[in-house]
Amino acid sequence: MNTRRPFILGITASLAAPRLHAQADTVPGLAADSITLGQSIALQSGKNAYATEAQAGIVACLNDANRRGGVFGRRVTLKTLDDDNNAGKAEAHARTLADADVFAFFGSLEGGPSMAVLKVAVERGIPFIGPMAGSPGLRRPHQRLVFPVRAEHREEFRALLQQGHRVGLKKAALMHADSDTGREHLGNVERLCKEIGIGFGGGLQFRNDIDDAGLRQLNREAAERGVDLVFNHGSAGVYEKLIRSARASGSRTVFWGVNSGSTPLARSLGDLAHGMVFAQIVPNPLSGKTALAREYQLRMAEAASNGAPPVLGYGGLEGFMTAKALLVALRAAGPAPTRERLVAAAEGVNSNLGGVSLRWQSGNHTGSAFVDLALVGRDGRFVQ
Hints:
The protein is about 40% helix and about 20% strand. The chain is of the alpha/beta class.
């Protein structure tokens, strides 16, 4: 994707209602027949598998909504820029999109870029709906303009540690980025270990350019500390290398994971993924147990070309769920929305997205608290 020219995604969601568009010319991003939002996302020109899945889910949801007439007759249009999972690029993109007078920001991916967009959102007074990241800073301190949808990483860590404690694992460590956000996550893990009663094995800190020797050193550190459970704070590519390095050395450490990148990670690890447990922030996308997953499957099948089977995954369902939440917020803002009306209306949202509850209220933009555990079976599928 060309990072210098926005990808325009035309989309519309529906409700029969009065067409009150007289103020459209005075509200940024609002026209008589469209509402335009800005998105900086870590597609990395198609190299980020999880982001590509998420974006496909977003497109499927919003295109279906647009076919039904739009949010009060307006198409929902995204201006999308690829930030390569780079916070600096994400911040620059957010400023570009703000200068282009988008109505709101929507749907970034990963903590660094999402926090960068948050910075611009606060500076420019632009609502930010649905950052797809679990970073603590998206919720604490409270940010009135920011409305996360997915559960934060802290709740994923809690679920993994509780399961580890249940099955008799003794000491847990977190693989985390050498960043302020990574260290925040490590602090949360330390507090959760104390709360749950499992030993805290510290952090396995890395930079993205870590080499094989560095990976071996991290595994030695885990062994020296007596760690028998390791999980990650994202960075699926680096985590895969850490797991492969551990298995090559004969390590019997248990490696589990968070939602971010879980499907491509399990696929890439192949047999090494069997028995791994992942925290998931959406229901199983291949199951028909929830209305959300069933709707996602249907919309993805409709979007598939030439009768090809749809590509389904956790990333796709997260994107689909996040887009549904966006539509809920836009509809709540009414037929004559402004940025302030969007924020005020979103703070009254208490909705069921089809098996996942969404709640935002004044002073607390939790969004969804849904976290479940999924096991990678012998056939490589997630059992949840």
